[in-house]
Write a structure and sequence with these properties.
The protein has 298 residues and is an alpha/beta fold. It has 13 helices and nine strands. 51% of the residues lie in helices and 13% in strands. Helix 1 links the parallel strand 1 and strand 2. Belongs to the HIBADH-related family.
């Protein structure tokens, strides 16, 4: 089993790293939030104030951070991960960040002679807890094969998509699609309410019909229907509105950079941005249904 450092033990990072502990790895962690750090320690992760305390002895170093700028600072700083890694170690970024920025990190890793993979995930908090995440990887095939057994510790489906930045490219496309599906699901549920339908019966039928989608089955915005849904917890977040807006911005920006018309993506981004700016940034993204209801009721 391997010695691993995990930087960023939030709602996704913590259950992912916990699964690696359960798999028998020695996991060290860095997390600035005291509550999450305490939860990580309780899960068997050896906590440190600085990555410098554990990175030099680690075979794998993971980052799971909210922005690309933070990832770049942690990896490429003067005392950053790339500078501290031992020979043969692999750095793996599981954040969701800009494709161009990720490719720049690959270039910097190559310049320094260190192995680096981008490996964002999909499947939500429930998938992270269950160890069933989809892990989409970009980078060198040999580095991927070294890391694969560790990635399979929290991933139900682990795949090398292609070269540098390919994992991030798939992730932003995926999240644009799921954002559109979630928006359509929320609008559909509100329409069903206005038509006098039982929304539990709606779920039962649509989840078996052509309107079925991942957001419907996992984030259904009506409480008491889907066990994993944030609607059961007054929209306490699994995946915040702010994070979805960030990811939708990444997709729309990539569309602009490549000359790809993303009319649906732009519409969904505008919809979730308005919801965020109405005071819902830290609520689960499925709380969009409340803004749709408010708009209908005006």
């Amino acid at each position: 089993m391997s010695v691993i450092t995990w930087i960023g033990l939030g709602q996704m990072g913590l259950p992912m790293a916990t699964n690696l502990v359960r798999a028998g790895h020695e996991v060290h962690g860095v997390e600035i939030d005291p509550e999450m750090a305490a939860a990580a320690a309780a899960a068997g992760i050896v906590m440190h104030d600085s990555a410098a305390e554990s990175v030099p002895d680690s075979a794998f170093v993971f980052t799971m951070l909210p922005t690309g700028d933070l990832v770049a600072a942690v990896l490429t700083g003067e005392d950053g991960v790339f500078a501290l890694m031992r020979d043969g170690a692999v750095a793996i970024d599981s954040s969701t960040v800009d494709v161009v920025q990720t490719r720049d990190l690959h270039d910097e890793a190559k310049r320094r002679g260190v192995a680096f993979l981008d490996a964002p995930v999909s499947g939500g908090v429930a998938g992270a807890q269950a160890g069933t995440l989809a892990v989409m990887v970009g980078g060198d095939a040999a580095d991927f094969e070294v890391a694969r057994p560790v990635l399979e510790g929290y991933g139900g489906h682990v795949g090398l998509i292609g070269g540098a930045g390919s994992g991030q490219a798939v992730k932003i496309v995926n999240n644009m699609i799921v954002g559109a599906c979630l928006a359509a699901t929320c609008e559909g549920v509100v329409l069903a309410e206005r038509l006098g339908l039982d929304t539990s019966a709606l779920f039962d039928m649509v989840s078996r019909s052509s309107g079925d989608n991942w957001a419907l089955r996992n984030w259904y915005p009506i409480p008491g229907v889907v066990e994993t849904a944030a609607s059961n917890r007054d929209f306490a977040p699994g995946f915040t509105t702010a994070l979805l807006v960030k990811d939708l911005n990444l997709a729309v920006s990539a569309g602009q950079a490549t000359g790809t018309p993303l009319q649906t993506g732009q519409t969904v981004l505008r919809q979730f941005t308005e919801h965020k700016e109405a005071g819902n940034a830290l609520l689960d993204c499925s709380s969009l249904i409340t803004s749709i209801r408010d708009h209908v009721d005006r």
